Predict the structure.
Amino acid sequence: MFLRFTTRKKDGKEHRYYSVVENVRLPGRRSPFQKTLLYLGELSDAQHAAWIKAIAVFDDATGQLQNLSLFADDHAIPADLAKTSVSIRMSDYRLCRPRQYGACWLACELWRELELDTFWGHRLPPSREGTDWGKLLTVSVAYRLIEPGSEWRCHRLW
């Protein structure tokens, strides 16, 4: 998913329209296409400034919230927000090792539906150090159902 904008000249003025899109690849098609998930429309300068102010990030070093920006680098940032914004080149942005939310949810639902959580809850009490063996078993089984691999790989990636 990413933010895409299109520009259009209308009455001698440039307008910028935003959409949230994702790349979709279908079987039988050679190239992926972009599916629009949400159309945001044209954002006025006030709306743009509101979106910039709406993105807050907690800084561990100072213990305070900072407002950051997530818009294209070719669109001017208001002068009062220039010091507290971060520019991101969306063309260089990539997603590494995404996980399927639906598969994890389904594995956990099957676990609860089969009442394996109550079955193993009595047989695997938490350790003295606080390790919840029941949750560890749930993650291990879900991992083996979704993407089988070694325990070391599960520890590194999950």
Residues 148 and 154 are 9 Å apart (CA to CA). Residues 46-93 form one domain. The mean pLDDT is 76. Residues 133-146 form the longest helix (14 residues).
